[in-house]
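Work Package 4 report. The design task specified in the project plan requires that, given a folded chain encoded as structure tokens, an amino acid be chosen for each position. We show below one input record used in the internal validation round.
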């Protein structure tokens, strides 16, 4: 079976968090592809928790960046697939060389935009929530002042 670099790049871009690109390239028996579902589902659960319970939900603080990292890694795969030369792609998969045209290039451009945005947003969200959590945690001196009063 011939695997298209264009299709692989677009599957990584659009469904990489679910492992669709790995299922396309390596088949339904690829265990790492199925393992993409767990962190993606946990991240989506965090988004739903935050929408329902608000920004004070500490579990959502942990889970949402996991989704961001899954999106960023799938964008990384799309970029990797799209930037692989046609010759290397054919040699890696043991198939004849096919000219791919502009399809993978557009996937790479979109993946760079989405991946950079999501990765920066996830890091900023995670760091902000970490520092908010640090401010909420009472220090030992505050505890001793409360106990002595």
């Amino acid at each position: 079976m011939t695997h298209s670099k264009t299709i692989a790049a677009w599957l990584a871009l659009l469904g990489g968090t679910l492992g669709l690109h790995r299922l396309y390239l390596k088949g339904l028996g690829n265990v790492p592809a199925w393992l993409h579902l767990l962190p993606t589902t946990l991240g989506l659960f965090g988004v739903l928790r935050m929408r329902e319970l608000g920004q004070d939900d500490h579990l959502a603080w942990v889970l949402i960046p996991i989704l961001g990292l899954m999106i960023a890694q799938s964008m990384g795969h799309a970029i990797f697939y799209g930037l692989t030369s046609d010759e290397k792609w054919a040699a890696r998969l043991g198939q004849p060389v096919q000219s791919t045209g502009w399809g993978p290039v557009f996937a790479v451009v979109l993946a760079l935009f989405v991946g950079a945005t999501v990765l920066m947003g996830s890091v900023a969200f995670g760091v902000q929530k970490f520092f908010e959590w640090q401010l909420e945690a009472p220090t030992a001196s505050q505890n001793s002042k409360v106990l002595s009063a």
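The chain has a mean pLDDT of 89. Validation will be extended to a larger panel in the next phase.
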